[in-house]
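Q: Could you write out the predicted structure for this multi-component system? I'm mainly interested in how the pieces pack against one another.
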Amino acid sequence: MDMYLSEPRDLYRGRAAAIIKPANAAEVANVLALCHAQGVAVVPQGGNTGLVGGQTPDESERQIVLSLQMLDRVREVDPDSNAMTLEAGVTLARAQDIAESVDRYFPLSLASEGSCSIGGNLATNAGGVHVLAYGAARDLVLGLEVALADGRLLSTLGKLRKDNTGYNLTQLFVGSEGTLGVITAATLKLFPRPRSRAVAFLGLDDPAQALALLNFVKEHAGPGLQAFEILPRLGLELVLRHIPGARDPLGAIHPWYALVEIAGFSDGEAERVASATLAQALDAGKARDATLAHSLNQAAALWRLRESMSEAQKREGGSIKHDISVPIDRIPEFIDEAGRRLAARFPQARPVPFGHMGDGNLHYNVSQPVGADKTAFLAQWDEMNAIVHGLVAEFDGSISAEHGIGRLKRDLLARVKNPVALDVMRALKQALDPKGVLNPGKLL
Amino acid sequence: MDMYLSEPRDLYRGRAAAIIKPANAAEVANVLALCHAQGVAVVPQGGNTGLVGGQTPDESERQIVLSLQMLDRVREVDPDSNAMTLEAGVTLARAQDIAESVDRYFPLSLASEGSCSIGGNLATNAGGVHVLAYGAARDLVLGLEVALADGRLLSTLGKLRKDNTGYNLTQLFVGSEGTLGVITAATLKLFPRPRSRAVAFLGLDDPAQALALLNFVKEHAGPGLQAFEILPRLGLELVLRHIPGARDPLGAIHPWYALVEIAGFSDGEAERVASATLAQALDAGKARDATLAHSLNQAAALWRLRESMSEAQKREGGSIKHDISVPIDRIPEFIDEAGRRLAARFPQARPVPFGHMGDGNLHYNVSQPVGADKTAFLAQWDEMNAIVHGLVAEFDGSISAEHGIGRLKRDLLARVKNPVALDVMRALKQALDPKGVLNPGKLL
């Protein structure tokens, strides 16, 4: 049972009365009906890749884990309607492949895509690298099949693009972390496949210039802009130090960097738009320097610089992490002020804020001082969190931009969330799961 | 009081104990708190342009109309974050102008945009001509301020693009037609302004060719595709007959037509993509003929052909209307089968199905037989509705794609909606408005 009771960060290790693996939605519904009648708590679990403990049972040995892994049928793929209906246990990577097999594109893309599953992606409203252009998991779903707490099966499945016949039940379940119902299948949107992609790496003065560049590129590349990521010089240095084969793509040293990806839908469009936009951006003083990848290998090498950030930070020693968002225009101010406040209390700690600038989402990770003791540094986790999350509140930001609440941030949420919003959430929970059998102890 | 008690189609005429016009959100909340305490029913009303009677009180003279017109402040416009926060009574046309004043684009666009208001647009999840590219009102909102039934004020306002901290309360209120809360303000998304637009008019064999063309253009124009509308030859003939100045833009007669709009974000891009895509589409047999507008005047003339459809049908005599959607790939089959079934029962009636092919949304309107008596024809409304809506159910479609339910389709909804979905909707209504003071008799 162990693989169902532990989770990726080893923060939690649960015990369970049983691991139940239904083969289809009707069996899921039957399990819930029985658990509801008996008052047995159910912890739904997809690919078990969540980072906040939402999929792990508690230590009582009285909860059951309901694994959706066996629900892995492809119910329908319809390229003409640009929609596919998949069961919850289909992995994200397989969903991407299914789209590609009918010459379509499914844009959700995450580090764990080989093992995370569609049901979990939707239950947690997963994000990833293409939110800027296509939205999060929430924006990619047309309908759901959901087993309710009492064992009834609700379906909003279907390929309709427009349907104004009542409350949007689909969006209520997306992001509810298994506390309102168990997603058993979903109808997902498909998109045209881009014909070309251009990837650029730019040297910048500071986050304020990154903001100006972001809006410049949005205006000139329009909806072709696929990703806009930033990292500071220290981040690039850590990657160059720890990741074999990593090379600085720009000759000179710059305080900040941006990685920009642009897609095109007619031949050569991506390169044409990207090179014209970058040339104008340099002329207009929106960047210090820029390089455009001229091959798929070069593009992959640029992406690797960004994607190696977490690994490079890990090899550098301890790091204290925050998954936060603020309004995009306040990112520069946030980075300045967070740095100031941390420096006042932890003068030797090294902030390495990086990530999805285009979504206002930073991985505000702080590396330990050079030569410091890792354990002693990590012991400051809560205190550092309090400083960063306090600033997030002042900036009307979010303490969980993409990873969710689960067990890890449940108590924090109760302290920082608008009390009326919390009340309404509790009223909805009471309406849909009055006996509290669905994932108790998570989120609320 | 009369202007608040009648509605555009003159289907309903209500009476009211009072018309209340609060000046701000706190006053709205106070009104609701009082009404909640006294058990007085409240009918929220925006620009009073809805087509299903959702904004009209009943005939009892015991309900009050709560007009949001005086809540018309612009709270914030932030082009850097691509967001604006407007109060509910701001008209849609003003919202578009506000966006333009900061060099941004707000894509929601409707016939009634001069008088309809943002609060009403969101309460009814309004659609319009750009849903294909930007989604409906639901997809354009980042957060809401809502007065709850008991007078508490809930805020999810804010400019965050990513926030995974609990249930999506915003989407629950969008499209709930004032039955779960009263929207007092909204944070809306802004978009880059397209630099160029290309509009084309194509002659087609049939709806099946329109479907093939739609997917061809999606693949070649990508997210630049802004609109894809269809109309049959009879529709164009009615426009040419009744609308002064209308001209057939193609030399020969074609059984069907498509209007396609493509936007570009770099100089000349729209024309380049449109002309290349159309040339390839003609080569590949996806259309019989095509013309591309070469001036803003020509583009406007092409759009006028499509936008005059309702007016032309009105001048031709009686027409029986349906606002339906089906999965996009089934549009051709639906048009065939609906035509067959109607012909069997009403051999002389003339279906003129037209509209938002790109969204799977048809205005399936049926014109009276040539020379028939209008009143006698319109007396068949319910019987014809039953045939068309019966087919919609067989096609897993929607009986209200964009106009909502209100009072007009409330009984119909109770018959055709999935019973579990109806139960869940009732549970949500009970949780948020247990005393039933918000817009009773509408939707549910």
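A: Regarding packing and overall arrangement: The domain at 74-192 of chain A is CATH 3.30.465.10 (Uridine Diphospho-n-acetylenolpyruvylglucosamine Reductase; domain 3).
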